[in-house]
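Loading example: each entry is read as two labelled lines plus one structure line.
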Amino acid sequence: MSEDELRHQRKMARRKEVQDAEVAAKTIESKGLLIVHTGPGKGKSTAAFGLILRALGHDWRVGVVQFGKGGWETGERRALERFGDKVSWHTLGEGFTWETQDRARDLAAAARAWDKTLELLADETIKLLVLDELNIALRYEHLPLDEVVATLGRRRPDLHVVVTGRNARPELIASADLVTEMGAVKHHFAAGVKAQAGIEF
Amino acid sequence: MSEDELRHQRKMARRKEVQDAEVAAKTIESKGLLIVHTGPGKGKSTAAFGLILRALGHDWRVGVVQFGKGGWETGERRALERFGDKVSWHTLGEGFTWETQDRARDLAAAARAWDKTLELLADETIKLLVLDELNIALRYEHLPLDEVVATLGRRRPDLHVVVTGRNARPELIASADLVTEMGAVKHHFAAGVKAQAGIEF
């Protein structure tokens, strides 16, 4: 091992000590988190589906509202059928204005999806609620940002909510507990490979 | 809608046209991808578990080798038990040097995990192979980087491989088809909330 490697390992060991001290200082045992997955890279919805899998492993009930078209998630939907009514899945979006150029339709779809969200927020059997592509509906002002942020802020103390989609609004980020930005470092589409089953959908 | 919003929507519509033309120009129908999830943020392993869920929805068999401790993934493991032998899961890491300060043990664990990887790479029933935290083993030179990159490069043409962990080596990124960097924008640990079941494990 080189000098550089040794130095790095010592640094890591010190960082671990600092982290352990930080963990020991934490006082809040548990809290329903508002989690945001945003950024231009892949993995925003996929990481949310990974959280669904984890939650199901703990026997939680999970709600999913898709504000986008959701035509692609055939793989996840079929896999989640194994968990029966542990998953309450609702695809209510129909695509967005830059595809349809029909703002009235977009507004109606977003309103339907938000109504379903309110219903699931009130369902005390649900412990994780995924609002897939809600960020897009907020970006295009299909829903009132203030109302959405305030409503999510008033969620039950033990309910975790995950919001996905590019261009998360700053007001939502300010209100969130955990925000991850997925950055695209390299993408196979640029090399001419088509979207394929099992990876993209 | 404001002028700014209208301008943005027109820009999005144009971008969509460009994307459609790009999709039409793609010529490679399918290819087993080398996917890397790296960066300091959350979601690297979780997005890999989301890909596992998608793959299972397509009736694929999936392999998982954990180069890290993997003590946390109780939720995913239990959920995946529903899929029986569709998932071949192996936790062979024991933690890393900055915790154990025992390099010989780390090297032995990495070698065992790599042997299992070679076995799963040769298993033609597997279509998705997740090498969780392999980046860490490469970062600390627990495995020869050249051999790992070359071996993954020689994978079957229809096998998808996902490598997770911080600090992906540039040589692996160069060889990958799809690289996503998870950036930490905001983290609830900083606000004193402890790691909790269903979200962190």
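Chain B has one domain: 32-191.
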